[in-house]
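Minutes, structural biology subgroup

Action item carried over from last meeting: produce the C-alpha cell record for Polar amino acid ABC transporter permease (Paracraurococcus ruber). EB confirmed the sequence was re-checked against the source entry. Recorded below for completeness.
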Amino acid sequence: MTFDDFLLAFFSLDILRQAWPILWMGLQQTLLLSAVVVPLGVLGGTVLALLSTVRHPLVRWPLMAWVDLFRAVPPLVLLVFVYAGLPFAGLEVSALGAVAIGFFLNTGAYYGEVLRAGIESVPRGQMEAARSTGLTRGQAMAWVILPQAVRNVLPDLISNTLEVVKLTSIASVVAMPELLFQARQAQSVTYNATPIMAAAVIYFLLLWPVVRLLSRLENRQIAGRR
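Output recorded by EB:
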C-alpha cells in the first residue's frame, strides 16, 4: 500500500464530507447521552455514599453487596441484559432507557465509592463542629461535609466522568445512534475507514481539554501535599 492509498483509505476528505451529516447527528446523541448518564451516575453515587455513612448492618451489608455487584458486572453485559433481558419479564425499555438504567447502576456504584472516600477523608470533627452551630445532621452533611468531600476527590470524580463519556460508545450495541454507531454505519456504506478515524478525532477533541484539566488538578493536589 502506497502512502496515497493509506490517505485515501483512512483520511479521505471526500468521504468525510459525505459522512459528516450523520457523524454530526451521532455527536449530538453522544452529548445527549453524556448529559443524561453523568448526572444520573452522580445522583446514584451520592445516594450510595450517604447510605455508606449509616453503620447499621441491615443497611451496610446490602449496600456493600449492591456496590460490589454493579462494579463487578461489565457495563456492556449489564446494558445488553437491561435492553434484551427485561422484555422477557414484560418490561419494554427503549434504547435510551436501557442506556440510562445500565449506566445509572454501573457508574453510580463507581461514583459512590469515590464520594464515600471523599466523605471519609473529611475529619470527623467537622461534623461535630457543624452540629454545634445548630445544623441538623442532614444540613451539616449537605453544607459542610459534602463540599469538602467533593473538593478532596475532585480529580477522581473528573477521571470517572471522563471514563463514563468514553463508555457511552457501547450504546451502539443497542442501536443507539451515538457517534460510534453512526461512524460504523457510514463506514459500511462508503467501504472506507475515514468515518471511524473521524469519530476517533472527535472523541479526542472533545475529551482532551478534560484530560488536561485533570492533569492540572492532580499536579496541584500533589503539590498541596508537599
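Discussion: The longest helix spans residues 13-51.
Next step: EB to file the record with the rest of the batch.
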